[in-house]
């Protein structure tokens, strides 16, 4: 989208056209109207694509005359994550240092008297301005400029919170490290804390969560957030008061599914010792990715009376299926030593022609295992290739539960 296309999209007749055809195939629309010079056909087709994605990702934004770019929509927080995140912050004045599409700014504006939306991309800032007006968010001001430059000009202690979602693309590639993203929150840590006593950083789900306090001395909590079983965000909560507290960082796993919220928190030094089962029980449980990423699997196992299948991976087992623990669960039909010829005979004798293959701490890749056993995919039957408690390679033949 260009700024000129944005201006054309804002016309009432074009908005009406988008609404009329938003349920149509965008390619068919483009072919049907390709000879209409009065319509920005390419841009309208793009909006049709975006509106379909918005209905699932940001349902509150659906059904309104809002405008998007595909990349900004892809990078924006989903509604469930944005609402939960907004619940962490409250006050008079917040700066969203990297505004983007503006979904976080909008949901945060319900928690603050004033939100400063900052975005250096002129098109995104213009889009956000249009969308905020359409949403009736009158307490958000638009600042189209470099966020760090704006921050440097603000008086110290003039903000209650700063929210920042650094751009994690470098030379067209995604990066996970804090210092590789823009702005560099590690380099600007002291500046950020001078302007606001509290800071929330949205980091990549791939970020390594250990050792972060050495990079961000004010860090007090790491939140690993999953939505519907997918790890979506890592949030780093910093507080000026934590600079002198001497406390270890708290790690929190939060799993959102529908209206349900499940959480577990601990400090790494408080993590219990892994209890490994001599033999697998009746069920295999794979915890939610947020639990695994936050290294809280041992604590979850202790809470729900589970043990590890082995000492190296986060597969849990028991004779009960621990329904309250977020994650996937399976009934174990057989535990077999990894001997390809014997496994092929077992599959043949038990009419197993399809299975989803999973592997952890196993020498062969998924591609090699698929080629070796030539099984079709299955949403119900699973084969877990891993190690036993004694370290030998095994295959757990399982059926999905629930």
Automatic annotation (TrEMBL):
The family database entries (InterPro entries) matched by this protein are listed as: SAM-dependent_MTases_sf, Thump-like
Which branch of life, at top level? Bacteria
Protein name as annotated: THUMP-like domain-containing protein
Q: Which organism is it from?
A: Prosthecochloris aestuarii
Residues annotated as domain THUMP-like: 327-398
């Amino acid at each position: 989208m260009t700024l000129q296309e944005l201006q054309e999209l804002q016309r009432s007749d074009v908005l009406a056209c988008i609404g009329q055809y938003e349920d149509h195939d965008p390619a068919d629309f483009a072919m049907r109207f390709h000879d209409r010079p009065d319509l920005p056909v390419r841009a309208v087709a793009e909006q049709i694509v975006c509106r379909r994605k918005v209905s699932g990702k940001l349902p509150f934004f659906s059904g309104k005359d809002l405008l998007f770019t595909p990349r900004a929509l892809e990078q924006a927080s989903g509604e469930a994550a944005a609402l939960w995140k907004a619940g962490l912050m409250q006050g008079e004045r917040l700066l969203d240092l990297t505004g983007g599409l503006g979904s976080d700014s909008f949901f945060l504006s319900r928690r603050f008297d004033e939100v400063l939306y900052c975005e250096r991309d002129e098109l995104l800032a213009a889009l956000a301005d249009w969308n905020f007006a359409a949403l009736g968010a009158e307490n958000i001001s638009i600042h189209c400029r470099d966020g760090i430059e704006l921050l440097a000009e603000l008086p110290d202690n003039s903000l209650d919170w700063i929210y920042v979602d650094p751009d994690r693309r470098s030379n067209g590639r995604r990066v996970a490290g804090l210092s590789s993203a823009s702005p560099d929150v590690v380099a600007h840590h002291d500046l950020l804390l001078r302007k606001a006593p509290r800071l929330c950083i949205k980091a990549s789900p791939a970020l390594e969560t250990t050792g972060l306090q050495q990079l961000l001395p004010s860090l007090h909590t790491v939140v690993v957030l999953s939505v519907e079983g997918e790890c979506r965000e890592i949030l780093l909560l910093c507080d000026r008061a934590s600079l002198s507290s001497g406390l270890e960082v708290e790690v929190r796993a939060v799993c959102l599914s529908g209206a349900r919220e499940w959480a577990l928190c601990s400090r790494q030094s408080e993590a219990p010792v892994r209890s490994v089962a001599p033999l697998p029980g009746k069920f295999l449980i794979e915890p939610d990715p947020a639990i695994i990423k936050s290294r809280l699997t041992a604590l979850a196992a202790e809470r729900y009376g589970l043990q590890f299948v082995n000492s190296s991976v986060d597969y849990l087992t028991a004779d009960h299926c621990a329904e309250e623990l977020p994650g996937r669960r399976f009934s174990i039909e057989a535990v077999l030593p990894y001997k390809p010829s014997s496994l092929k005979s077992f599959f043949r004798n038990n009419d197993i022609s399809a299975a989803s293959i999973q592997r952890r701490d196993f020498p062969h890749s998924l591609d090699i295992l698929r080629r070796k056993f030539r099984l079709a995919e299955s949403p119900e039957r699973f084969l877990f290739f891993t190690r036993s408690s004694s370290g030998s390679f095994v295959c757990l033949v399982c059926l999905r539960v629930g």
